[in-house]
Amino acid sequence: MSNNAATQPLAIKADREAGRLVLEWADGHVTEYDSEMLRLMCPCAFCQGEGGHSGWLETSPTLTAIQTQLVDLHLVGQYAIAPVWGDGHDTGYYTFTALRATCPCLTCAAERLNPA
Ligand SMILES: [Zn+2]
Ligand SMILES: [Zn+2]
Known about the structure:
The chain is α+β, with helices and mostly antiparallel strands. The protein is 21% helix and 32% strand. The chain has a single domain, classed as NE0471 N-terminal domain-like, CATH 3.30.2020.30. Strand 2 and strand 3 form a beta hairpin. It is globular, with a radius of gyration of 14 Å. The structure holds zinc ion (ZN) (2 copies). One zinc ion (ZN) binds next to helix 2.
């Protein structure tokens, strides 16, 4: 368990209307994912592959509106969230660490290009 403020969310908001996930971190940073981007990051074995088998997402599938529809969000312990998608898919556990590490905002993108 990490006490790092950068990977500890104070608030997690699933905006189903806009199809967005917003995470507010303990260090004051805010991370926003649109639902399609989030769906493409699904870390489960089916989507990303496992043990040498390629995953569904590696076949570059065309995602349907249903497949990128965020219908619900479950908290997994104290370390991850599991979104529920319109097609019923809910096996992807997105850890807070990973969600922060891949934050798509300009500040974080620039930091990943030029680590301080
Ligand atoms: Zn998946
Ligand atoms: Zn960021």
